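Hi C.,

You asked whether I'd gotten around to modeling the 75-residue construct. I have! Everything is below, sequence then structure, no commentary in between.
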Amino acid sequence: MERGEKYDDPICEALEDAGVGYVDGGGTKLSNDGVIEYCYVDVEAEDVNGSTEVIRRLLASVGAPSGSTIAILRR
């Protein structure tokens, strides 16, 4: 829930405002003892470079944890 409000929704809005992509999904990876290992947001990018820049700026402004990454997967 918090991931969606803090990251998914703002990323989706920023990508759509810039016209470079949209959020397609996301999730949270938990360890066996229930500790969050990482979260992810799936993005469909119409413009990969533009989407990456929008996401990078947004993550910095919302206080994403140090070490956050943007992974680009080509289909």
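If it helps when you're writing up: Residues 2-18 form the longest helix (17 residues).

Thanks,
B.
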